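Please fill in the sequence for the structure shown.

STRUCTURE ENCODING:
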C-alpha cells in the first residue's frame, strides 16, 4: 500500500502530506486551493516535493534524502483527470492498446477483454475521441488507466463537468472496479455523495494539512 510523508512548497502555499493508506478506496475532500490536486500530482510524479518520501508496496518512488525520483511512467501510478485526455488520432481500441503495451507485463492485473466488458466499451472501440460523449470518454480514460497495470489509481474529481445522468452512469462502473479488483484507489472530490456511494474511507484536506 501507499506510505508517504512529504512537503511541497509553492510560493506562499505549503502541502504537508503524511499518509499510511490501508483502505482499498480512500476519499479526499477539501475546498478549492486546499492542495488536493497537488497531492495527487506529487504522488504520480508530475510535481516534485522539496522534502520527504513516497513509497508504494514497499518500493520507494521518491525520496529526497536518497535522491530517488522514479519517473511518472515507471511509478505504476495512474492518474485520471477531470477531463478525459485521449489521443485524438487514435480510436478507442488504439487508445486502450497503447496503455496496454506500456503496462508492466510481469504483473498483469487487467486484461483487455476484462476491461472492455467491465466498462462496456466494446460498442465504442472503433470510435475516435471526438465521437464520444463526456461519460463515454471518461470510461475510456478509466479503461486506459487500468490497462496500464497500475499499483495505485488516482482520480482527480473525475466526474466534474458531467451532468447528473452521466455521473450516475460512471459511478457504478467505478464501484464495479472497486468490487471486482483489489486495486487501491484515491478519489478526490468536492462531493461527499460520490464517496458515500463508493463506501470510501474519507479524509479531509484544508490549507495543505490532512485531517483524519
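FILLED IN BY: designer on duty
SEQUENCE:
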Amino acid at each position: 500500500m501507499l506510505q508517504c510523508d512529504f512537503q511541497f512548497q509553492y510560493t506562499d502555499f505549503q502541502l504537508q502530506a503524511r499518509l499510511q493508506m490501508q483502505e482499498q478506496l480512500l476519499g479526499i475532500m477539501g475546498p478549492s486551493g486546499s492542495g488536493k490536486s497537488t497531492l495527487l500530482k506529487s504522488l504520480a510524479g508530475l510535481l516534485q516535493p522539496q522534502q520527504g518520501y513516497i513509497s508504494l508496496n514497499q518500493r520507494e518512488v521518491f525520496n529526497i534524502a536518497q535522491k530517488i525520483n522514479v519517473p511518472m511512467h515507471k511509478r505504476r501510478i495512474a492518474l485520471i483527470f477531470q477531463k478525459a485526455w485521449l489521443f485524438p488520432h487514435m480510436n478507442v481500441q488504439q487508445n486502450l492498446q497503447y496503455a496496454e503495451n506500456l503496462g508492466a507485463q510481469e504483473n498483469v492485473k487487467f486484461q483487455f477483454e476484462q476491461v472492455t466488458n467491465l466498462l462496456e466499451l466494446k460498442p465504442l472501440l472503433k470510435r475516435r475521441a471526438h465521437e464520444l460523449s463526456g461519460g463515454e470518454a471518461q470510461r475510456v480514460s478509466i479503461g486506459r488507466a487500468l490497462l496500464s497495470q497500475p499499483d495505485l489509481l488516482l482520480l482527480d474529481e473525475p466526474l466534474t463537468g458531467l451532468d447528473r445522468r452521466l455521473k450516475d452512469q460512471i459511478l457504478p462502473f467505478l464501484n464495479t472496479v472497486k468490487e471486482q479488483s483489489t486495486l487501491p484507489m484515491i478519489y478526490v472530490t468536492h462531493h461527499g455523495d460520490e464517496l458515500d456511494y463508493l463506501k470510501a474511507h474519507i479524509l479531509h484536506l484544508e490549507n495543505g494539512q490532512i485531517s483524519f
